[in-house]
Amino acid sequence: MALGDLMPSFPFSRSSSGVPVSNHLDEREYVDLGGTLVIRDNKDSDTASSSYGNASTATSMAYLPQSVVLCELRHDAFEDCVFSRPSDSGAVLKWRVKDRMKTGCVALVLCLNIGVDPPDVIKISPCARMECWIDPFSMAPRKAIETIEKTLRLQYERWQPKAHYKSHTDPTVEEVRKLCTTCRKSAKSERVLFHYNGHGVPRPTANGEIWLFNKSYTQYIPLPISELDSWLRTPSIYVFDCSAGGMVVNAFKELPDWSASSSSGSSIRDCILLAACEAHETLPQSAEFPADVFTSCLTTPIKMALRWFWPRSLLLQSLDYSLADKIPGRQNDRKTLLGELNWIFTAVTDTIAWNVLPHDLFQRLFRQDLLVASLFRNFLLAERIMRSANCSPISYPVLPPTHQHHMWDAWDMAAEICLSQLPTLLEDPNADFQPSPFFTDQLTAFEVWLDHGSERKKPPEQLPIVLQVLLSQSHRFRALVLLGRFLDMGPWAVNLALSVGIFPYVLKLLQTITPELRQILVFIWTKILALDKSCQADLVKDGGHLYFIRFLDSVEAYPEQRAMAAFVLAVIVDGHRRGQEACIEAGLIHVCLKHLHSSLANDAQTEPLFLQWLCLCLGKLWEDFTEAQVIGLQADASVIYTSVLSEPQPEVRASGVFALGTLLDVGFDSSRNGGDEEGDNDEKIRAETSILKSILNAVSDGSPLVRAEVAVALARFAFGHNKHLKPIAAAYCKPQSNAVLSSLPSLAMKGTGSVYTPPQSMPHGILGPSQIGPLLRVGGDCQSAVRDGRVSTSSPLTASGIMHGSPPCDDLPQHSDPGMFSEDVSYGVASHTRPKPLDNALYSQCVFAMRTLAKDPSPCVASLGRRVLSFIGIEQVVTKSVKSTGSSARPGEPTTPSLAGLARSASWFDMNGGHLPLTFRTPPVSPPRPSYLSGLRRVCSLEFRPHLMNSPDIGLADPLLGSGGDSGVSERSLLPQSTIYRWSCSHFSKPLLTAADDSEEMLARREEREKIALDNIAKCQRTSINKLHDQIAAWDTKIDCGTKTILVHPFNPVVIAADETERIRIWNYEEDTLLNSFDNHDYADKGISKLSLVNELDDSLLLVASSDGNIRIWKDYVLKDKQKLVTAFSAIQGHRPGVRSVNAVVDWQQQSGYLYASGEISSIMVWDLDKEQLLNSVPSSSDCSISALSASQVHPGQFAAGFVDGSVRLFDIRAPELLVCTTQPHTQRVERVVGIGFQPGLDPTKIVSASQAGDIQFLDIRRQGGDSYLTINAHRGSLTSLAVHRHAPIVASGSAKQLIKIFNLKGQQLGSMRYKIGSLNCLTFHPYQVLLAAGAADALLMKHLLQDA
Prior knowledge:
Elements: H1 3-6, E1 28-33, E2 36-41, E3 60-65, H2 74-77, E4 103-110, H3 141-157, E5 164-169, H4 173-187, E6 191-197, E7 210-213, E8 220-223, H5 225-232, E9 236-241, H6 245-253, E10 271-275, H7 293-299, H8 301-309, H9 315-318, H10 337-356, H11 359-366, H12 370-387, E11 394-396, H13 407-419, H14 422-427, H15 438-452, H16 463-469, H17 473-487, H18 491-500, H19 503-509, H20 518-531, H21 535-541, H22 544-552, H23 559-573, H24 577-585, H25 588-601, H26 608-621, H27 626-634, H28 637-644, H29 650-663, H30 682-696, H31 704-720, H32 722-733, H33 738-741, E12 825-826, E13 829-830, H34 840-854, H35 859-871, E14 874-876, E15 918-920, H36 945-950, H37 967-972, H38 979-987, H39 999-1021, E16 1034-1038, E17 1043-1048, E18 1054-1059, E19 1063-1068, E20 1073-1079, E21 1088-1094, E22 1101-1106, E23 1110-1115, E24 1124-1130, E25 1145-1149, E26 1154-1158, E27 1163-1168, E28 1173-1179, E29 1186-1191, E30 1198-1203, E31 1208-1212, E32 1219-1223, E33 1233-1238, E34 1246-1251, E35 1255-1260, E36 1268-1273, E37 1279-1284, E38 1290-1295, E39 1299-1304, E40 1309-1314, E41 1320-1325, ...
Parallel strand pairs: 4-5, 4-6, 6-9, 9-10
Antiparallel strand pairs: 1-2, 2-3, 7-8, 10-11, 12-13, 14-15, 16-43, 17-18, 18-19, 19-20, 21-22, 22-23, 23-24, 25-26, 26-27, 27-28, 29-30, 30-31, 31-32, 33-34, 34-35, 35-36, 37-38, 38-39, 39-40, 41-42, 42-43
């Protein structure tokens, strides 16, 4: 079984066609056409209405889109700016033993006085006599005690061979004092073990004194515990093998100064006590046990355990008891019988302790010190054995009872199975030992837990056994696979595994070369590093990074697994200079660039997750590391990353921007020599210029994840090039004369190899898909100001050669304070080594890109953009929101603070003396010395501080610029951190081996909605409305600012309305209740263009298009104050010269996942929302602007556009020429097209168009010239809106004269409605019912139309 069998392919993003489709109506036939489900109703096809005009079929059919977009993980958390990342501090580090310790010295004190019984002991007959498995009466007393002393030392050396051993037999108090002081001096700060055998002296006194001898052995001399403690001090561990040992333990706990010894200041927790019995108990005297049964359990556990178990098992009848001393093998050889038993015993006792003890106590006793861990494992055995003799060993810290734990049954069974082979092994030394099934059975039990366990259930008790199994080659692979499954359950599981002690084992396994272990080891390390970044130092120290570099370079591994290796390497080098240096030496840069290049060259085998982590790994590798940056530039990394920025996955593009941003040298590498600056040559400047242009080209990316990385990259650039950017920013921000305005950068058209070539009629061309960038309009008229951060010519700032010239630096002092560009102190940062300047035109582009980001529709990106502006001296101030209506307060609705931030409607400088949304602050003329910079804060308006305090920025605090110490560290902390790296790290913290268990719920919800939709569609398609009946339901409510656009929910009685101030309200029209109300954004410019539902058959999202071309998509919009922004982007960049606003028109096509947007520009932008990327920029082929836009809900990629000159054009982005047909249907009076839509049905050639003049044209593009075949003069010069039902054969029109008319597709008027609700602004039909919603200047109306089936 390979990891690939366990782990399905990691889904980088949900496929647009991956939603389960139900087939719950047997009478319907399902056909899949281009991601759209076609349902043909064969049951009553002969009854279908003929209202579809020239449709060639009477079969009732309906299209249900199967694509689902904007449902990735990045859409759940990005706008909240909440990401998890590998942690290097906090609670997750509790697994790591803080102070790993070693017992450096062992003191053995034996008070046996062989041949003389203590006065308080009355022995039975026969009596226990064995000491260290030696009969002291079998030889002379002196020789016996020496032999016992030597044997005890050997038994302890089995557990700690490197310790210093010192001993005394029958000592005096002075000898013990010298012994203790010598041991403490030898051990230094290490632990000292004091073993006391008091079998030849009286039991301890009530005060806890232990007994020793005088020199002549005529008296017993008491030794107070306080003196013993003062000699040994801490850390220490005491073993008292004597009757009433509890007396000694109690005496220790009563010491007044034991909690903090005066000599060492150590805590009581550094002292450990083990005693053979309670204060009122005596040691067992039965001949079944040795006299030192407690010591035997602690030092020879296997022998003691078998001797105790043998007479209690079935083996007593079949095997001779004497064979227990003849078990072959060595304890450290797991392939022998004795080694197997010792291995099983270790696993059993570890498991008992893990399941019984608190985790912090388990860490201290079983993971901190090898000798202490061995003694406590064996102490569990002593408790089991001695309790059978009515004796209770005690310890400090106190352990809960473990003698009846069920794992002892597993030990008994394993011992029986192993010992049953003993006769055969003794008879034939060459016979093969058959291992016990113990570990196989325990792994099976662990696997069963994995199938049914969870975080809410009790942790698996077999976890310590899994750790032990890793020592065996025969079980290792299975154990690793099961461990990987466990770690995949979540960070809690990783923390548990690390707490049990898995870390040194998996670290050691990186030295193996077994090929079948590579995949699972990489997976396990991925899970570990996703939780705890601090492991990076351990990996580099042991050379573990080489293992992952080799795996990354192996082409036979799955790309998803190689992505994990890249993640591990990225964490290794993240902020870790030694890791960066080690990976540079191992050639990681060339390995990553090689595979990045090969992946991009072979699109068919490109795995997005692999590309993403190659970029992130390289970005972290050369982050603030000049040597790595130079290697990357020499390897032409910037050229490779340029192609990454066009990848379809936003995560990959964002990672590419991150890597390009960290490739820029901005002077953070404090380790480089001063002479390195001389190496800044023309070639490096050219490379950095190319990098910066690539980054700027992503400013208009459709994904906020990408734009956030652009902001982070520009923040780094602004930090390093601060003194060069400040003059540019100052020139644009200061109110200037006309002469200064003439020095602003001009625009020049540069041809590109984009899909679209600008038409000659446009003086400056139009954007191609690769040209979208932050745009600037500077015309010949000096009164024209930069507005909205866009250029009225549609030329991208990011194209090379666009910006020519910049405000000359020599003129700056006359417009600004002297000293504002001091080289000693830059704005907001202490001076450090700065990169050499680039071209001024490029700096100008950067300033405008920064401003564009500061006004981004995504709040998270905008906050990053404002932070970037602060680095170049542009400060955010409070500007009042410009409302088109008087009162902003709404009765019954919560008020929102009108902090507009960067006003969208104002230019950077108002020639008429208006307010300045951006101000430029300068340091004082005499800047403070660098030593006083610790108290200097980033310049920030006092007015704006309350807003900053409440802003949801992550990593965007207002820190002090210096806090002492290394200035480079404090400067680095000012920069915003990468969002893509943090977000990408969180991917590996989630389960990767199992898919999310929500498919059944999603399938059930979709089946239900499909059934509702199909039933209603069938009714609509069979509808034959001959006249308009009286309304059966009406709903009317007042809206103060006039309804601009409305939307009816397809499955709930909900209508969504937006007014002119972009206040969005959600109503339940059956109960006449307001469900939710919120503002689309807080900027001054207001105006709504379109409301649409995305994923209407699933968990629908609300798409809100503003008139300025910004798109915002919301989830949970129906829940009161629970709405959450999913994504936001600007669908339109720039507008025509001389036009002040964009006047965007937008439509959404669910089948294809495309968003079409246009307005006062000469093209239609086609956005792929699944990729969050501009798919195409379709030339409109007209000098006029588009006033109406409609996407086909049947045929993906097809849309129709109506223009202000009355013309209509049909486009299909699947066609090579894009433009399918052009027609001029509105010829009576040439006025703008105010509404356009495709006729109901499957025919893609039939369109309905309505002009402001009042005529409605029914078009068939198959006719010559696309002329209309039916004309309806619905209104006289006052038509304001048109609605075409998606399935029913009806259309509706509204006029400024408060009149609504309903027509069928034959041109027959079914009725009209006149209401005193003001001029009609919008009309819309329910998608699956004959329900009409109308929005007017001062009201919203819902009307059900009675239909004849």
